Amino acid sequence: VIRSTCYLLEDPIPKRIAEAVLWRQRLCGPYTSTSQLVHALEDFGQELLDERSRANLAHVVFCAIRIFLNEEMGQLDLALEGIFERLAPGGRCVVICFNRWEMATIRRFIQQHERPCDEVLAALPQEHWDRLY
Question: Are 17 and 44 in contact (CB under 8 A)?
Answer without folding.
Answer: yes
